Amino acid sequence: MEYIVETKKLTKRFGKEYAVADLEMKIPRGEIYGFLGPNGAGKTTTIRMLLGLMKPTAGSVQVFGKDLRKDRINILNKVGSLVENPSYYPHLTANENLEALRKIYGVPKTRIAEVLEIVRLSDVGNKKVKGFSLGMKQRLGIAASLLNSPELLILDEPTNGLDPSGIIEIRNLIKRLPKEYGMTILISSHLLSEIDQIATTVGIVSKGKMIFQDSIETMRLYSKQKLVLKVNDSEKAWRSLIAKGIKAELEEGIISLFEQSDKGVAMAVRSLVQDGYSIYRVEEEKRSLEDTFLQMTAEEKVL
Ligand SMILES: Nc1ncnc2c1ncn2[C@@H]1O[C@H](COP(=O)(O)OP(=O)(O)OP(=O)(O)O)[C@@H](O)[C@H]1O
């Protein structure tokens, strides 16, 4: 698999404290990588190292397959970022603010209209930024980070402090970017619900360590609510349930019921008993995604 970002044993120590420890982050091309972890887990420190803003204590960062230490300028030319709350000249318009940055990047003037269009701020390009809502300011920050047409966009908690409609706007905007512009995105958050709604790949960090990294589907598998039956001859037992129209799934010798009402469970159990199967266990596997996340970060359990 091609990784846009790949860190090897990335470590940052402040005095005796490890803010980031042996982190192996892998971000495949075209993904929205949700970088999730409680406050103080080491997300911002990691992001600062990815952007060459902070020197690692140990380990390496590869972006676009190249070592950040050796190809820093070339790499950063193709990266966009929004790390802290963007600062603007409040008395200047959105267009004028972007124009100041455009000159630094040396991109054509036409790019300003393009980035305003991408973040849906074309209508207010000539309005002064001081009148903008926080959500609009944040979108302007994303517009600025897109000026150099980055292949990788890094956003540190971009929805922090926004109201629900502002959050939805940013979310929809971010979701469009890989599809329409082929970008790869790293978005950090301490909110699982946020990452759940936007990310395609998830990396969970706790106390500086990566404790989970996989697709969002895999993460959801861990937290499915299930009612599972352990029986003898599970394959046959499962077929007998299906034959009676009881919806069930068979995985590694364990039957999971779709219908989990008391009535539904009683019916399935009765049917199996009547057909002569031995039921060893009926168990509820109840873990919400939130529980899974909390448990993982509390125990630092590597899944
Ligand atoms: N410049 C610094 N000097 C000393 N300690 C630091 C410094 N920057 C971060 N830390 C410590 O490193 C740890 C990780 O902090 P970091 O800001 O990376 O976490 P985070 O996951 O981004 O959290 P948040 O969402 O609160 O920003 C924390 O314990 C923090 O106190």
TrEMBL record:
Keyword Cell division set for record: no
Where the record annotates domain ABC transporter, the positions are: 5-232
Gene3D superfamilies for this protein? P-loop containing nucleotide triphosphate hydrolases
> What Pfam families does the record point to?
ABC_tran
Record keywords = ATP-binding, Nucleotide-binding, Transport
SMART domains annotated for this entry? AAA
> What Gene Ontology molecular function terms does this protein carry?
ATP binding
Q: Give the family from UniProt.
A: Belongs to the ABC transporter superfamily.
- What name has this protein been given in UniProt? ABC transporter ATP-binding protein
Species assigned in the record: Ornithinibacillus xuwenensis
Q: What is the lineage of its organism?
A: Bacteria, Bacillati, Bacillota, Bacilli, Bacillales
